[in-house]
Amino acid sequence: MNAYPELQLCIGGAWKSAEGQPTLNPADESVLGTVPHATAGDLDAALDAAKAGFEIWRKTSPAKRAAIIVEAARLLRERVDEIAFAITLEQGKPLAQSKQEILRGCEIIEWDANEGRRLYGRIIPSEPGMRHSVLRQPIGVVAAFSPWNFPLSSPVRKVAGALSAGCSIVLKASEETPAGAVHLVRAFHDAGLPPGILNLVFGVPSEISGYLIPRPEVRLVTFTGSIPVGKQLAGLAAQHMKPAIMELGGHAPVIVCDDVDPAGAGTLSAVAKSRNAGQVCVSPTRFFVHEAIFEPFAAAFAKRAAAIKVGDGRDPSSDMGPLANHRRLEAMEAFVADAKQKGARVLAGGSRIGNRGYYFPLTVLAEVSDDARVMYEEPFGPLAVINPVRDIDEAIDKANALPYGLAGYAFTNSARNVDRLAEGVEVGNLSINHFVASSAETPFGGVKESGYGREGGTEGLECYSVVKNVSHKQLDFTS
Q1: Are residues 218 and 341 located together in one domain of the fold?
Q2: With contact defined as beta carbons under 8 Å apart, do 380 and 328 qualify?
Q3: Are strands 14-16 and 345-348 parallel, antiparallel or unpaired?
């Protein structure tokens, strides 16, 4: 049950092996398997399958589509232990977090499946003899690109949205964490999804995107990943007049007002920051704390951070696993060295753990200079910055100072502050007094350079549809 799965492409309902690259376990740097790379012929076959599959799926009733999609979620729940073990092996997060990711993915699938039955059009009132009907129809074949940090739930966002809206999809999942996507696609096929509607490929990311996006079969591009890559793909999509959903990076601010318990907020913040070793696009990173409670907040945060046990995700006692790859480890070391050189205080962590596996502790920096790299570059790792501010206005100004705007957080017990935060913080998702940035029923996405389009909620499914207006006038040649 706890074996790492065979990694294969899935094209037109058929599984296929191919040469590729090794997939590593970040806990000990051992090789788990070989992820296959799709050839140009494989991509052509996937597009042909998706095009044919779309003609079947678009004509399938929303109720029948929903039944298949919900069955896939049931199978994922049934297989949660097996899938969680594979995700922990390839990505590093503790087993409990891997299970939570799968179950959250199931909630998204189930919600989208049922919301797909409610992609309503409307009738626009007009003069007698004229009727204006607005229809929502599936956009067509979707090219989807998902990242490595959430091997199952990130592909789920795209697959569930596309299929629930009546589209077919070619999913290019991460080569570094491929098992989650393999399990996901297998569940949909075992649930009875007709061949060709969901296809899975892997390969060199720039080569796959450069091949798929210009193809006329592809009608929509959806991508989750870094801002630089997102800009490249959005530009390529624009050249070919393709709409796109871009869920890009962030650098989430947290505003802590002086009317909350600093110890409680600091402790909760440290736990939230440790989730997935901080490798989350909505991870809370820049903490702007009112100067009146700055010291007790920072002390509580650092104390809880130091107590986070870092270890192999398969060990039930581990609170935080290794970083997913050597690039994140090197980045953490560089961020900390730069901040220290510019005067930051290290309150917890700060250096690599051991010399095998990509382990790095939850690290807390205080009073960090605005010109330190970590203040304007997303660390995407277990690194938090805590700085004092005079008031809520200064906090909002600092929160908005960067060109990113994906998620933001705040702690306050004041209704006046809530209104000020809701109106003033420039993000697509603002969570107050908690750290849940999105749920299945809410729209998720960014503003400014953090992207456009939405995943989740009614808005998410609408992105996979096109609007058609039909004007029908009664024939009357007597007048």
Answers
A1: no
A2: yes
A3: unpaired
Contacts of 330 (CB under 8 A, 6+ apart): none
* Three-class DSSP category at 457: helix
Q: What is residue 303's three-state secondary structure?
A: helix
Q: Judge if 382 and 280 occupy the same domain.
A: yes
How far is 477 from 261, CA to CA, in rounded Å?
77
Q: In what order do the strands lie in the sheet with 465-473?
A: 122-124, 130-138, 465-473
Q: Are residues 236 and 321 in the same domain?
A: no
pLDDT tens for the chain, 479 residues: list them: 568 999 999 999 999 999 999 999 999 999 999 999 999 999 999 999 999 999 999 999 999 999 999 999 999 999 999 999 999 999 999 999 999 999 999 999 999 999 999 999 999 999 999 999 999 999 999 999 999 999 999 999 999 999 999 999 999 999 999 999 999 999 999 999 999 999 999 999 999 999 999 999 999 999 999 999 999 999 999 999 999 999 999 999 999 999 999 999 999 999 999 999 999 999 999 999 999 999 999 999 999 999 999 999 999 999 999 999 999 999 999 999 999 999 999 999 999 999 999 999 999 999 999 999 999 999 999 999 999 999 999 999 999 999 999 999 999 999 999 999 999 999 999 999 999 999 999 999 999 999 999 999 999 999 999 999 999 999 877 65
**N-terminal to C-terminal alpha carbon distance within the chain:** 76
Are 384 and 456 part of one and the same domain? no
Q: Residue 404 in contact with residue 285, Cβ under 8 Å?
A: no
C-alpha to C-alpha distances, 95 to 100, 104, 108, 289, 437, nearest whole angstrom? 9, 14, 20, 33, 21
d(CA 79, CA 212): 32
Q: Do β-strands 383-389 and 286-290 pair in parallel, antiparallel, or remain unpaired?
A: parallel
Q: Over the range 109-123, which residues count as b (16 or more CB within 10 Å of their CB) and which as e?
A: bbbbbebbeebeeee
Going across the sheet that includes 198-201, the strands are 14-16, 9-11, 198-201, 168-172, 141-145, 218-224, 244-247, 451-452
The catalytic residue positions are 247, 281
Query: Would you say 58 and 352 are in contact if contact means Cβ atoms under 8 Å apart?
Result: no
Whether 401 and 268 map to the same domain: the answer is yes
Q: Whole-prediction pTM value? A: 0.95
Give yes or no for a contact between 171 and 144, defined as CB atoms under 8 angstroms apart. Answer: yes
d(CA 47, CA 45): 5
Same domain for 393 and 377: yes
Asked whether residue 475 is domain-assigned, the answer is: no
Query: In whole angstroms, how far apart are CA 346 and each of 59, 88, 190, 339, 363?
Result: 59, 29, 51, 9, 8
